[in-house]
UniProtKB/TrEMBL annotation, chain A:
<keyword id="KW-0813">Transport</keyword>
<comment type="similarity">
    <text>Belongs to the complex I 49 kDa subunit family.</text>
</comment>
<dbReference type="Pfam" id="PF00346">
    <property type="entry name" value="Complex1_49kDa"/>
</dbReference>
<comment type="subunit">
    <text>NDH-1 is composed of 14 different subunits. Subunits NuoB, C, D, E, F, and G constitute the peripheral sector of the complex.</text>
</comment>
<keyword id="KW-0874">Quinone</keyword>
<keyword id="KW-1278">Translocase</keyword>
<dbReference type="InterPro" id="IPR022885">
    <property type="entry name" value="NDH1_su_D/H"/>
</dbReference>
<keyword id="KW-1003">Cell membrane</keyword>
<dbReference type="InterPro" id="IPR001135">
    <property type="entry name" value="NADH_Q_OxRdtase_suD"/>
</dbReference>
Automatic annotation (TrEMBL), chain B:
<keyword id="KW-1003">Cell membrane</keyword>
<keyword id="KW-0874">Quinone</keyword>
<feature type="region of interest" description="Disordered">
    <location>
        <begin position="1"/>
        <end position="45"/>
    </location>
</feature>
<dbReference type="InterPro" id="IPR001268">
    <property type="entry name" value="NADH_UbQ_OxRdtase_30kDa_su"/>
</dbReference>
<keyword id="KW-0813">Transport</keyword>
<comment type="similarity">
    <text>Belongs to the complex I 30 kDa subunit family.</text>
</comment>
<comment type="subunit">
    <text>NDH-1 is composed of 14 different subunits. Subunits NuoB, C, D, E, F, and G constitute the peripheral sector of the complex.</text>
</comment>
<keyword id="KW-0472">Membrane</keyword>
<feature type="domain" description="NADH:ubiquinone oxidoreductase 30kDa subunit">
    <location>
        <begin position="104"/>
        <end position="226"/>
    </location>
</feature>
Length: 441, 246
């Protein structure tokens, strides 16, 4: 209380308010009168290193016990859903990929599946395009789970795992860059297929990754699974059983860690997941430890899926045959990034007037989508990622709503945190793996 | 000037001094295409039209109920609901089957009762409320604000969509938070974005927009907004002021 830089106090109508920017906790709490104020309200975030982005938690504490917890979101709201209504259907991919920035491929795939269902071309998606989608989604799932492992480790005091997790994730992002031209926010999966084919070097690199990763996973487990502090901080912490999960709409690894093997890839398959062989890992306890084990096991399952996808990758088109829908796929990676392929530009400018007209119409207007509405859901690394897309028959989405697992799952924070210790709020919140970009959209 | 410019009269042609249509407000992109009930082509509205396409009107058809049999599990679900819910005939406006999805349009005041039956009846068992969202059908429906519920039955692996329409003047319908606690934040989002009021919600406040925000941004008559941006020496107008083709 002596150094004004660390904690200043002021009187408000609600009582005394301290603004803490650092320093010693004891000095801060010594400012309150323990006899009259048994409970203090701590405002954690929206900029706090352990709240996974701009999540704000309002905690009512009695000593170190959390009596009430409320989360406040919306700090990263960017109006993506509104913006989509002002672009054409293909441009939508570029927007949605930026929602949940740790799993862009899932956002794109869910959107593309919705648009394809509206167009009625779900069955025309080529086998190679579907296989590439599965391949990319599973690589993305691994990278997303790695970030979860890295950041959760860091938040619970295991700094080393942070470095390792991000190192391996970087490897996957390199693969993404090779295939799509971008590390993140790739806008690679498009309505009708994918933007371009997978180059051969990328396949070599993925094979190397498949060889390397099981060893690395073993290292993570050596580092964490037997470590007493990690076990203490995760076992029987932030427990949420199946009933609680379903009532609160929590899906994904958190639901599976409570023991229900609900995975949309198995229960309501899409992109041909029903033809792949993989297991749905579960854990009976529903605590942070269970979520850790489930996510590690899911990385292993994803590796199996990536391998199967690589094995069945046969040459063929990666876009539907309909040239109107496929137009944006006539792209190539140049020195300055992805753009129209030079061959295509030469053709429309030099040889074919008709092509030029079509090009102009497709670039300025885009294609039309028959009116109607659909709901399509995929299993993202965080749970059910649903897209409710409405078309009015125009060239732009009439309404696109994302059922974001981060948004829905964050509702579980009071159920997990209240009655527990303040340190377990961090563990519980982190175990939900919220990504605020997706949550706030 | 009191007399309108020739370009503002219908069929008046484009004189040289006419202010550029589409550069100011009233720009074609200001509203998403269908909000003006599918009028015009190439984004032409009012004057500036020498092609005649500005007079083109694309009628928007009402969503019609589907005839039985619906196919798939849809008959099972509707039959089970009809059996378990005595007020079915009164509560359900129409049943639509489109693109392999079942939509049950429910009278808004009945939505909580229907959800209760959908969750609890042994032959329905829609345990999970996947999503609650809104959509604004401005110009297409008198009760323009639609609230859309996506329910999932984990037991039977079924999905169903419930849709309830309310008007802007009376945007009230009962909250389903008592039945599906997961609807809490999603109803707050629908309130925030569309101004739909869910009666009985424990704390219906804004969730994504700031608390003191005015208006409901996802409504179709709410402009996108934006500021002009300079890029390589040129000024790029905000997206809803750009020239656009539709």
């Amino acid at each position: 209380m002596t150094t004004p830089n660390y904690a200043t106090e002021r009187e408000t109508t609600e009582g005394r308010v301290f603004t803490v920017t650092g320093g010693d906790w004891d000095t801060v709490v010594s400012g309150t009168d323990p006899i009259n104020d048994e409970r203090i309200v701590v405002n954690m975030g929206p900029q706090h290193p352990s709240t996974h982005g701009v999540l704000r938690l309002i905690l009512e504490l009695e000593g170190e016990t959390v009596r009430e917890a409320r989360s406040v979101i919306g700090y990263l709201h960017t109006g993506i859903e509104k913006n989509l209504e002002y672009r054409n259907w293909v441009q939508g991919t570029t927007f949605v990929t930026r929602m949940d920035y740790l799993s862009p491929i899932f956002n794109e795939t869910a959107y593309s599946l919705a648009v394809e269902k509206l167009l009625g071309i779900t069955d025309e998606i080529t086998e190679r395009a579907n296989t590439i989608r599965v391949l990319m989604m599973e690589l993305n799932r691994i990278s997303s789970h790695l970030v979860w492992l890295a950041t959760t480790g860091m938040e619970l005091g295991a700094i080393s795992i942070m470095l390792y997790g991000f190192r391996e994730r970087e490897y996957i992002l390199d693969i993404f860059e090779m295939i799509t031209g971008l590390r993140m926010n790739m806008a690679y999966v498009r309505p009708g297929g994918v933007a371009q084919d997978v180059p051969d070097e990328a396949i070599v690199k993925i094979r190397e990754f498949l060889k390397m990763m099981p060893k690395r996973l073993k290292e993570y487990e050596d580092l964490l699974s037997g470590q007493p502090i990690w076990i203490e901080r995760t076992k029987n912490v932030a427990v949420l059983d199946v009933t609680g999960c379903v009532a609160l709409g929590v899906t994904g690894p958190v639901l599976r860690s409570a023991g229900l093997a609900w995975d949309l890839r198995k229960t309501m398959p899409y992109c041909g997941y029903e033809t792949y062989e993989f297991d749905v890992p579960t854990h009976p306890d529903g605590d942070v430890w269970g979520r850790y084990l489930v996510r590690l096991a899911e990385i292993r399952e994803s590796l199996k899926l990536v391998e199967q996808a690589l094995d069945r990758l046969k040459p063929g088109p990666v876009m539907v045959a309909d040239r109107k829908i496929a137009w944006p796929a006539q792209l190539a990676i140049g020195v300055d990034g992805m753009g129209n392929s030079l061959e295509h530009v030469a053709k429309i400018m030099g040889q074919s007037m008709e092509s030029l007209i079509h090009h102009f119409k497709l670039v300025t207007e885009g294609f039309r989508v028959p009116p109607g509405q659909v709901y399509v859901a995929v299993e993202s690394p965080r749970g059910e990622l649903g897209v409710h897309a409405v078309s009015d028959g125009g060239t732009r989405p009439y309404r696109v709503h994302y059922r974001e697992p981060s948004f829905v799952n964050l509702q579980a924070i009071p159920a997990m945190a209240e009655g527990g210790l303040i340190a377990d709020v961090i563990a519980g919140g982190a175990s939900l793996d919220p990504v605020m970009g997706g949550c706030d959209r | 000037m009191t007399t309108p410019a020739p370009s503002e009269k219908p069929g008046g042609g484009v004189p040289a001094q006419a202010p550029p249509v589409g550069a100011t407000s009233g720009a074609p992109a200001e509203y998403p295409p269908a909000s003006t009930a599918g009028r015009g082509m190439f984004g032409i509205q009012g004057s500036g039209d020498t092609s005649g396409f500005g007079g083109l009107v694309r009628p928007r058809r009402e969503v019609e109920g589907s005839p039985r049999p619906y196919g798939g599990y849809f008959d099972e679900v509707t039959d089970a609901l009809e059996e378990a819910y005595p007020a079915f005939a009164d509560a359900v406006e129409k049943v639509v089957v489109d693109r392999g999805e079942l939509t049950i349009h429910v009278r808004p005041e009945r939505i909580a009762e229907v959800c209760q039956v959908m969750r609890d009846d042994l032959s329905l068992r829609f345990e999970l409320c996947s999503s609650v969202s809104g959509a604004d059908y401005l110009g297409a429906d008198q009760r323009r604000l639609h609230v859309v519920y996506h329910l999932t039955s984990m037991t039977y692996r079924h999905r169903v969509r419930l849709e309830a329409a309310v008007s802007v003047e009376d945007p009230h319908l009962p909250s389903v938070t008592a039945i599906y606690p997961t609807a809490d934040w999603q109803e707050r989002e629908a309130y925030d974005m569309f101004g739909v009021v869910f009666d009985g919600h424990p704390a219906l406040t804004r969730i994504l927009m700031p608390d003191d925000w005015e208006g409901h941004p996802q409504r179709k008559d709410y402009p996108l907004g934006g500021v002009p941006v300079e890029y390589k020496g040129a000024e790029i107008p905000p997206p809803d002021r750009r020239r656009s083709y539709q």
